[in-house]
Amino acid sequence: MNERTEPAVDAIAALVPATLRALHALEFAGRHLAPATLAQLIKAVAGRESDVTAALSASRALVWPERLHPARDCLERAAEAAGEGITGLLAAGDAPQPMFAAYRALRAYARAAEAIYPMTPHLRPVSQFFLEPAARDDTALGARLAAVDPAREHVGVMHVGGKPGTRGAFSLYVPEWYDAARAWPLVVAMHGGSGNGGAFLWSWVREARTRGFIVIAPTASGTTWSLMEPEVDGPNIDRMVEDVAGQWTIDTSRQLLTGMSDGGTFTYVLGLRGDCRFTHLAPIAASFHPLLMSFADAERMRGLPIHIVHGTHDWMFPPEMAQGAHQTLQQADAAVVYREIGDLSHTYPRDENAAILDWFLAPRAP
Fold this sequence. Notes:
Blueprint: H1 5-32, H2 38-45, H3 48-60, H4 69-92, H5 98-106, H6 108-116, H7 124-129, H8 139-146, E1 156-160, E2 170-174, E3 184-190, H9 197-200, H10 205-211, E4 214-218, H11 230-245, E5 250-260, H12 262-271, E6 280-284, H13 298-301, E7 305-311, H14 319-331, E8 335-341, H15 353-361
Parallel strand pairs: 3-4, 3-5, 5-6, 6-7, 7-8
Antiparallel strand pairs: 1-2, 2-4
Helix pairs in contact: 1-2, 1-3, 1-4, 2-4, 3-4, 4-5, 4-6
């Protein structure tokens, strides 16, 4: 370390923890956001933006060594996005439509995550952030990740068909320790209305990097999924899967279709049909109407693994919808798991991913 490098190291030591704390705060807010909790969430995250702002200002005042410019750029972009998210959330309470302002603020999480992710091979706290908590001290996994060449191509986060969020395109994550000699489970995760795959991908990267599966996060052709015209987005998703399967080794016996809100509803729309390729369905915070069963294939329904997650306090789609789905699908002989979360509103429950994956990846009875 020389005199020019030491201040940059100090800047990294300030930027990384401040940014990760802000990301944790945004995750917490995203999980617990509801009209009744917004004021408490704003109070809980207050002050996180000042840490990020101070670290970012100090970094920008430095003359970084040229060899560290790539690290500087990643960390400063991440800190800026995370800070904007916290600041936007703090201001949401005074907005004309507080909940929509809060949802907009939380979009900064994905921008910050994407910006800081390239630092996972180089900074242990960043690498651990993108692992499931129970695996952060897993020495075997740590060694496996440490052995990966950071310059390896065709792994990590990719965007196909345009920049993140391009309508009709998709984002993709392939674990950096991918080995073509084994077949990898596939998760196709569909965003909610007005969302996009580039952002929703980050709901699953941590688990995919830990457990070893591939994630496709499509973006709907329109502002949301073609719920009334499945022939619009359905074949597009099939093409995405075929494209990925043509380049990476997919386990055709482990293909999960899941989604949040409208993405969860579209999981039902596509997943109950006889020509659906997916082996498991996991609709989250989804709308369900018994008329959907008129499109269902009776033979496919028998034993079909379906994992429903819904919030007791969902203000957009009342839990009675999910309860009705549970009963209807059970009557059709599907193998249904129903999870109603007592403190969940209409938000994505990141903390349920582990249970969904334990169910999805469990050995199947002969």
